[in-house]
Structure formats: structure tokens, C-alpha cells
Amino acid sequence: MHEDIAAIRDDFPILSRSVGDEQLVYLDNAATTQTPEQVYDVFEEFYAGYNANVHRGIHTLSHEASVAYEEAHDRLAEFIGASGGREELIFTKNTTESINLVAYGVGLNELGPGDNVVTTEMEHHASLVTWQQVAKRTGADVRFIRVDDDGKLDLEHAAELIDNDTQLMSIVHVSNVLGTVNPVEELTELAHEQDALVFIDGAQAVPNRRVDVEEIDADFYAFSGHKMAGPTGVGCLYGKHHLLESMEPFLYGGEMIRHVTYEDSTWNRPPWKFEAGTPPIAEGIALAAAADYLDDVGMDFVEERENELAQYALERLTERDDVEVYGPPLGEARSGLVAFNLDGVHGHDLSALLDERGIAVRAGDHCTQPLHDRLDIPGSVRASFYVYNTTDEIDQLLDALDVARDELDSHLASEQYHDLVY
Ligand code: PMP
Asked: Which intervals hold domain Aminotransferase class V (predicted)?
């Protein structure tokens, strides 16, 4: 194992726990990454040192909490290349809430019959369901950019779909099933040529590569803390400042107002206008520590490492003739995950058998049912990697596939089981 990786693994004590009698092999990072000491120590520092509500008190603890919380916004803005700092960076609960914030703020207010939203066939339900429901309520259409057989977006189709009536394009930066890295800059340019706003779901991108929202020229960009070595309960929404200024709030309540009378209210400035009620204070501060941690490791290194692990896994999986893998073929850029199926074995059975060996993967539709329909499969098994994973762990996964194959062949190779799977 590379010396750096051993040192990185030491920062994540959970990686040395066992599952039953086996050493944990954690390959479910696209769902949630593990959290290093440097990040969860922040919770102890906060709760033992300066726990208080923000923005409401004149006392020292409230002041300290407010400063740390506000600076955390600046840190996350910097992490994704947003030069406007905190005024362009809203803390939400997660990517899902960030998408809903834009759907309520822009979608429900701006869309109407005759308008369309352009999205892709590879969206996570967080975005797909949201735009679908906004479209139902406003009378707008949703159009889906096709995914080709290599798991890539058909850019000619995108150019046909984006037209004068496109108010918004909502695309995923990196697919959580195919691992495809979409050409978001090119697509954003196409959408802007038609004066459409661009929302990007970066849940699988920000953890794994250097993202610069200004280079992409995204109008809105969302991601989650728990997928980037940060805590659960906090996510981010970037928005260009002038758009956040003019956008309607999503949630009403304390903190987000400027002046309230019995008759009417006015709004605070961004980002506080979009952070009603007590926000995720400790979580936000810990997320800034996660950004520091990732920058210390180096985002270029994280990206390189993930690509290496994905290529290795792909190579080993495609050697087998009983495995089908999805997404861009070997040698092409992809994020650190591989979704696959082992011939004749239901994903949930495989996942349970792998768990008996301490290997954590995910099986199911990964919140992309329409994409699985498009691939004509009921579900898939997804192994997803982070900077701390090793090729040894991938070898263990592959060895376990053989064992699983044998066990299932002997116990379940009945016609009845085959009928259940297919
Ligand atoms: N979009 C993508 C591409 C994702 O992978 C996920 C998480 N699986 C989400 C959105 C939703 O993230 P969250 O559950 O943190 O809101």
C-alpha cells in the first residue's frame, strides 16, 4: 500500500473495525463517505467549547458560533471556486433540499405552459422527481437528453432539445450509477445560448474532483456534506448572487427576514434569506473542516486515485464473462464507482453474501429507476471508492464474487431462483 494511503486510512478509525469476524471493506462511498477524525473532532470542539445559536445573541458563545458558521460558508464557496463567498453559498440539509430550493424558488415561480426543463436520462430521483412534479404543477414539459450505450450523454440530442422555450436545464455532473463525468461546461454554454438557467447536481462530483462553478458558469450548483468526508445533515447550494437576490425564498420563518409586521415581511440578504430557522451549525462548521481535509490531501490526488481504482475494478470485472458492467468502457474517464450485475444472481443476495465477508456495497436501483429501465435491468450492484480504498480491497471484492457464485450456484441454482431474478 502506498505510504500516503496508509496515513490517510489512519485518519479514518472506522476503516479498521470489523464486521462479524471480517475486516471491514467499505465500498459504498457514493452513498456516504467515511469521516476523518479531523472532521468529527469539530463536533466535540463545538459542543464542549462554544455551542450556541447563531445570529441571535450578543453573548460571547453566540458570537463565536456565528463567526465560525459564517466563515464556514466562505470556506465552502472557496472550495468550489465561488468568488462571491458566503453570499453565494447556502447551507441546506443535503443535495435534495438544494434542488427543491431551486425548484420552489425558480421552478414554481417562473415556469408555465409552453416552457420546458431539459434534464437527462441519468438523473437521480432527487432531481428527476422534483422537476417532474414542478412540471406537473406548472404545465411545463420535462425533456430528457438521451444516454447512449456507453453511458454517455448524446450531445446532438441535447442541442435538439434545448430551445427558445427552455427555461432551465438541470443536469447531473457525475452519474451515481454509470460514473460518467458529463461535459457540463459544453452543456451550460448550449443552455445559456438560449437564455436558460443552469442547475447542476454535483453530489458525486464535488467529493471527487476539483469543481469550479465559475469556470463551468453554472447558475446553481448543489452538493452534500456526507459524500465528501463531511457530516450528514448539511449540504450546499451555490447560486449566482444576482439570482439569489431576486429569487423567492423556499422556507419562511426566523433568520430569513429583515422586517416583519402583521401585514407583511421583507427578506434578509442571501444566504440567510434561504436559511430559515436554526441552521445546521456544528455540521456546517465540520463541513468546512472536511473541505480543509480534502485540500490537504489534494483534490487532484483524490481524482487521480479514484480513476485508478475505478479502472482497476473495471479491468478485473470485465475479465469475467459472468459480469455485466455499466457506464463508460475501460480506459475512459469515470468517477470512482462501478455498477455491475453478476449473471444469475440477484443484487440483494450478492450484497448480503458480500456483507458476510465484511464487504459493504450497495444493491438496488440507486435512486435511478428510469435509468435502470433504460438499461433494461431491475437493479445493479455498485462498488464505489474513495481516496482511502485500495486495490487489495477490490481484489477481496472479486474473490468474494467467486465465493458468492459457488454458494449461490450450489444453493440456489434452481429454475425457481432463476425465475425470481429475471
Ligand atoms: N444526486 C446524486 C447524483 C446523488 O448521488 C445523490 C445521493 N445518492 C443525490 C443527488 C442526493 O443526495 P442527498 O441524499 O444527500 O440529498
From this structure: 25-397
